[in-house]
């Protein structure tokens, strides 16, 4: 990745070009907002999911330890 974001354009109909019967009088190219996160492969998604589950597990374990220490 070069760090430069490429703009993605889609062909759409602006609301001021829409007729009452639903047809478009003039199509225009509009910029399409890019996703914040890039698409992930199955392996990358699994790593993210396991990291989330790991953080939850550590938090649960800490909560149980603190609860046992109070009693």
Describe the structure.
- The chain is an alpha+beta fold and 71 residues long.
- A two-stranded antiparallel ribbon has the order 1-2.
- The radius of gyration is 24 Å and the shape is elongated.
- The model has no long low-confidence stretch (mean pLDDT 87).
What is the compact description of this entry?
The protein contains one helix and two strands.
Shape assignment: elongated
Nearest-angstrom radius of gyration? Answer: 24 Å
Largest β-sheet summary: 2 strands, antiparallel
Q: Determine the structural class based on helices, strands and strand pairing.
A: alpha+beta
Question: Strand portion, in percent?
Answer: 15-25%
The N- and C-terminal alpha carbons lie at a distance of: 53 Å
Contiguous low-pLDDT stretches (5 residues minimum) are none
N-to-C order of helices and strands = EEH
Q: Please tally the helical runs, counting DSSP H or I stretches of 4 or more residues.
A: 1
- How many β-strands, per DSSP? 2
Note the topology:
Elements: E1 8-13, E2 27-32, H1 42-70
Antiparallel strand pairs: 1-2
What attributes characterize this protein structure?
41% helix, single chain, 17% strand, 71 residues, alpha+beta, two-stranded antiparallel sheet
């Amino acid at each position: 990745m070069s760090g430069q974001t490429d703009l993605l354009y889609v062909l759409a109909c602006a609301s001021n070009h829409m007729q009452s019967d639903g047809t478009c009088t003039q199509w225009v190219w509009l910029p399409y907002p890019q996703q914040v996160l890039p698409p992930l492969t199955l392996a990358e998604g699994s790593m993210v999911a396991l990291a989330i589950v790991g953080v939850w597990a550590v938090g649960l374990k800490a909560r149980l330890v603190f609860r046992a220490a109070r009693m």
